Amino acid sequence: MATLWYLVRRVAQAVLVIFLVTIVVFALLHALPGGPARGILGAQATAQQIATFNHEQGLDKPVVAQYFYYLRTLLHGDLGTSYTLNEPVSTLIVQRLPKTLVLTVLSAILGLLLAIPLGMWQAVRRNKPFDYAITTLSFVAYATPVYFFGLILVLVFSQALRWFPSQAPQGDTLGQVLANPAGLVLPVVAGAASMVAVFSRYMRSATLENLAEDYVRTAKAGGARQRAILWRHVFRNSLTPVIAMLGYYVPVLFGGALVVEQLFNYPGMGLLFWSAAQSSDYPVLLGCVLVISVATVIGTLLADIVQRVIDPRVVAGKS
Amino acid sequence: MTKTILDVEELGVTFRTETGEVPAVRGVSLTVAPGETLALVGESGSGKSTVALAAMGLLSGNARITGRVAIDGTDIVGSTTGKSGAAGKAGAAGSSGAAGKAGAVELSRLRGRTASMVFQEPATALDPLTRVGAQIVEVIRNHRPVSKAAARQEAVELLRRVGIPDPARRAAAYPFQLSGGQRQRVVIAMAIANDPSLLIADEPTTALDVTVQAEILDLLRELAADAGTGVLLVTHNMGVVADFADRVAVMLSGEIVETGPVEQVLLRPRHEYTQRLLAAVPRLAVAEPGESAAQASTTVSARPSAGVTPAAEGSAGEPVVRLRDVSVVFGRGGRAVRALDQVSIEVRAGETVGLVGESGSGKSTAARVALGLIAPSAGAVSLFGADLRRTRGRSRRRLRAGIGVVLQDPVASLDARMSVAECVAEPLRVHRSMSARQRRSRVEEVLDRVRLPRALADRAPRELSGGQRQRVSLARALVLDPRLLVADEPTSALDVSVQQAVLEVIAELQADLGFACLFVSHDLAVVQRFAARVVVLRAGRIEEQGRTDATLLHPETDYTRRLLAAVPVPDPAVQRRRRAARQAVAGAGA
Question: Which Pfam families match (chain B) (predicted)?
Answer without folding.
Answer: ABC_tran, oligo_HPY
